[in-house]
# Entry
Amino acid sequence: MRLKTIFSNLALATALSAVALSAAPAFAAGKMTVSSPQDPGSWDPIDTFLVNWASVATNIYDGLVYRGPDLKIVPALATSWEELDEGKRIRFHLRENVKFHNGEDFNAEAVKFTFERLLGEEGGKGPQRSNYVAIDKVEVIDDKTVDFHLKDTDPVLMTKLAGYGAMIVPPKYIQEKGDDFFNANPVGTGPFKVTSYKPKVGIQMEAFADHWGGAPKLSELEYRFITEPSTAVAELQAGRVDLVIPPTIPISMIPTIQSDPKLDIVTTAGPTVYSLRYNTRDGITADPRVRKALILGVDRDTIIQSILGGQAEPIASLQGSLSFGFDPELKPLPYDPEAAKKLLAEAGVKPGATVQIDIRGNDATLNEVVQAISSYLQMIGITATIKPYETNVLLNDIIPQGKTGAMFQQSWGGWTFDYDNTAYSMYHTGEKWNPYDDDPKMNEMLESQRAITDRAKREIILKDIAKYAAERALEMPLYNLKAIYGINKRVKDFVPAPDSRLRLTAVSVD
# Structure
């Protein structure tokens, strides 16, 4: 048997020195209020893909491992691990003396329960299971040791275990209370414990003094769900909110915030990319020539400078430069309205043809961007109508059910910083975010790279996937937006997370 220890003793010691995940040395008074643009509707880790879920729940739950703003994987509920059987088995050694918020013990059975639930019938109802299908079963070796037996190798699995569906949940609590109760009354092992959740209003937490990494500096943490960006900024200015998280703040309001001596803007490179994806099944966008023409007809560079204030980079595929699989040689299509008109004529599309663009109604910045896109399309003979939806309706009903117009907003966090997480979800047949396309060649490419652990070989395939998606013009790639936070200067030691997964244990307030 070949044994590959992932963490050497030195690396483990280094990681464990930081394993408090920026935890504070002592409990202190102080409440911080955060504005989030969306109520995810369920706090169950298997029910969501939403960044706005993770920005809250990273404080409620722990995974076996943790990835912070520096994007490095460090121990969390597992103190160490090793690969066995040529990567087909991973043994995790679990942290001792860890409690869930309800007093329940964390142990190997909790890990087994979490992943059997995720990969079973309950997990099948949500969007997370497909990220973890490489796991065949979890075997309990003893109370503090588990083996993950893998069907296939997954080069991104360790990152996936740091977030979302892999957050460890309490077996007895869920079995006794039921899934519906758990959705609204989450219990984890994280540094903050939920005390109140009011749908569409907010969620309140208090410091969990018994957290294995040490008590947070804050005594209370509140997230308010403020869907209107102007309202969120007004609350920040009034001092009723301490932090506004991405993607809420309209670019146009950045100077207003910066001019306030009590406030500041903090930005960092992020994974979030914006696109208008196409209905490739129906109407004029079923023709790839039309899809390409619409891209050529929009001056995205000008939009980035004039509307986004330069706070974004143009993209040629659904990933930013921090993503594994990013190809700097793949360039965005240029703005060329004459070429766009020629392609439309070749496709038999006459001036005055219409397209509907579906967007999230509360995304003020993208709304402004799409208005500009509509104007550009008008200049090449296409009349665009913009249809705003309440975010959860668009994401849970319209897109997955294939009920969109010709184009629809797809904002994607790419939280693994690996193109697989984006591309598989967007392009593989049967995935929730691919309601229209069925491409055997694309499926084969996506599946083949998941079985490869050689990073160089995987990277080649991921770049080929990006090129193929661009050739087929499956979406209009727009831009990679920086993560923009508005913050009250009374908040101390805040580190902006590229993926908005905020761990607020080290933060304090004056």
